[in-house]
Design a protein that fits this description.
The longest helix has 16 residues. The protein has eight helices and nine strands. The protein has a five-stranded parallel β-sheet, with helices on both faces. A four-stranded mixed β-sheet has the order 4-3-6-5. The relative contact order is 0.19. It is of the alpha/beta class. The model has no long low-confidence stretch (mean pLDDT 90). 45% of the residues lie in helices and 19% in strands. The chain is globular and about 70 Å long. β5 and β6 form a beta hairpin. It has a single domain, classed as P-loop containing nucleotide triphosphate hydrolases (Rossmann fold, 3-Layer(aba) Sandwich), CATH 3.40.50.300.
């Protein structure tokens, strides 16, 4: 399950809420070269690397996708996919649109959800409320948001984040619907366990 949105629309907060409500889900922890923000923990929020170490891992094929975003690199460790598959867990990935498109190409069975803010005015308010960026960084993120929003039609589902609780419930419904879809049902496994 890939959750994407423009910066500030709520993808990370939604994923955190989903993981609190569903400890049986697994969070993909990405590699990044960006600086560690206040309150972030190594191995929980990101795996922080130098640019050289990141590019070496990418060259060795240790990532299923990676991209440069706002001057920093981000990538998804291949080990996360192996672990989730082995443990038969829902893997939540919080990715930008570049990463989302790469995952869909490599794993067509993946489910992509695009989170939109209620309005662009609200997105700007949320980004300003973070207080983490200066005006030039804010302008850069807003400009990028307009480009990213154009990708909405490449996603399987769209959730407008007007209310955090409702957005979380919407994505829960999507996950449960997908888990019970005909395409994902293991009939052969069910048959083996269902002998009369």
């Amino acid at each position: 399950m890939v959750i994407s949105s423009p910066s500030g629309a709520g993808k990370t907060t939604i994923a955190k809420r989903l993981l609190i409500r569903h400890p049986e889900f697994m969070k993909s922890v990405s590699f990044t070269t960006r600086y560690k923000r206040k309150g972030e923990k190594e191995g929980k929020d990101y795996l922080f690397l130098s640019k050289e170490a990141f590019l070496k891992k990418a060259e060795k094929g240790e990532m299923v996708e990676w991209a440069e975003v706002y001057g920093s690199y981000y990538g998804t460790p291949r080990s996360m996919f192996r672990k989730a598959s082995k443990e038969k867990k829902v893997l939540l990935l919080v990715l930008d649109v570049q990463g989302g498109m790469q995952i869909k190409r490599k794993y067509p069975q993946s489910v992509l959800v695009f989170v939109l803010p209620p309005t662009l005015t609200e997105l700007k308010r949320r980004l300003k409320g973070r207080g983490a960026e200066g005006q030039s960084q804010l302008d850069l993120r807003l400009k990028a948001a307009l480009k990213e929003i154009k990708f909405w039609s490449n996603y399987d589902y769209i959730v407008v984040n007007r209310n955090l609780g409702e957005a979380v419930k919407s994505i829960e419904s999507i996950i449960y619907g997908e888990l019970h879809s005909r395409a994902r049902f293991d009939f052969k496994g069910w048959e083996k366990r269902s002998k009369i």
